[in-house]
Design goal:
single chain; 361 residues; alpha/beta; Isopropylmalate Dehydrogenase; 2 domains; 41% helix; globular; binds adenosine-5'-triphosphate
């Protein structure tokens, strides 16, 4: 499909568990309206993942799902409640991890920007965390075979962190390229006073890559100090590049500072493939209650359409992405909010209003 100007896009959709059953269909509806506004149609290819897949094939990520993903333009994935899976599959890598690992989706891009009219602890925050997605301190995904976490005796547990120059280089390039489209500032996260070789390599390689981007300002922080700076002066940061675990933790912090977990989007990507996935989990406490905020999933889908637009050189897709953003902004700015943001709108009501804004010309 690359480079073609087809009027159709073919998107894989994995609904996932918990509130995925509510926020993913809501997102599909709004994406269809946004694409339709530019004469584009979306062909959905539903693929099993999570509880549905366990029920039908005994595994949370069936091979058929992975095989089908290969030929599609891009994918959207709902959250998964892997902690609640049956014992036999619980030890496996979580479904999102399997897809990211199988397709080497090495960059997890997580923006945190306050929405208009939404009370936020950091109302002027507008940053993006670029999280390395394939190695680092998350031991369950940094081995080709087996896990980097193991127990020599029942009373000793060990975990291996993996940092490779090549993975540090490619995530650094992603961060610096992104900074060029924004305020031209990259902050590197590490803990090189303690994890000197591993996170020290991450810092040094990011700095070296930064020399190729003389127009982008660079600084670096220990992860603990950065957590404090984000709370105190979060609006000062632009692009933050982090290894896997630091990026995961900091992005929950920035999500809450800039709004709520329910508003935090993310895009997982490689050079050739991308998957929209909200930064939050399956929220089993509110699943099935029509209370979930679909914003994170909606904004993730906007990122996906923009990514696809740039990959296929089709401006209509990029416009469809911004249209979703504008519709979400208009909705929350008018005071409509779900319970997590202190409002009373149900998932269905919120979606209805976003969709109406999306269709409005
Ligand atoms: P995971 O480890 O998969 O990220 P988790 O249990 O740590 O999952 P979440 O499932 O993200 O975390 O839920 C954390 C809290 O945030 C819960 O109280 C949940 O209800 C709330 N939450 C998460 N997403 C949303 C959303 N879209 N709308 C409203 N509340 C949400």
């Amino acid at each position: 499909m690359m480079g073609s100007m087809s009027d159709r896009v073919e998107l894989g959709v994995m609904v996932g568990d918990g509130i995925g059953r509510e926020i993913v269909p809501a997102t599909q509806r709004v994406m269809e309206s946004a694409a339709g506004a530019y004469g584009l149609a979306i062909d959905w290819v539903p693929l099993e993942l999570g509880f549905d897949a366990i029920a039908s094939s005994g595994t949370a990520v069936p091979q058929a799902t992975l095989d089908a993903l290969v030929g599609l333009d891009a994918w959207i994935m709902g959250p998964h409640d892997s902690a609640a899976y049956p014992k036999e599959v619980r030890g496996d890598l979580a479904p999102g991890g399997v897809v990211r690992k199988t397709f080497n989706l090495f960059a997890n891009v997580r923006p945190a920007a306050a929405l208009p009219g939404v009370a936020a602890m950091s109302p002027n925050m507008d940053l993006v965390i670029v999280r390395e997605n394939t190695e680092g301190l998350y031991a369950d995904r940094n081995m080709a075979v087996g896990s980097g976490e193991f127990m020599p005796t029942p009373d000793i547990a060990l975990a291996v962190g993996v940092f490779t120059r090549s993975a540090c280089e490619r995530i650094a390039h992603t961060a610096f390229e992104l900074a060029r489209t924004r305020r031209r500032h990259v902050t590197i996260v590490h803990k090189a006073n303690v994890l000197t070789m591993t996170t020290g390599l991450f810092r040094d390689v990011c700095r070296q890559v930064g020399e190729q981007y003389p127009d982008v300002e660079v600084d670096d922080f220990h992860v603990d100090a950065l957590a404090a700076h984000l709370v105190r002066r979060g609006a000062d940061f632009d692009v933050i590049v982090a290894e896997n675990m630091f990026g995961d933790i900091l992005s929950d912090l920035t999500a809450e500072l800039s709004g709520s977990l329910g508003t935090a989007p993310s895009l997982n990507m490689s050079e050739t493939q991308a998957m929209a996935q909200a930064a939050h989990g399956a929220a089993p406490d509110i699943a099935g209650k029509n209370r979930a905020n679909p914003t994170a999933m909606l904004l993730s889908s906007a990122m996906l359409l923009e990514w696809l637009g740039s990959r296929q050189s089709d401006e209509r897709l990029a416009h469809a992405g911004s249209r979703i953003r504008q519709a979400v902004d208009a909705t929350v700015a008018s005071g409509v909010a779900t319970a997590d943001l202190g409002g009373q709108a149900s998932t269905a009501e919120f979606t209805e209003i976003v969709d109406a804004h999306t269709r409005r010309r």
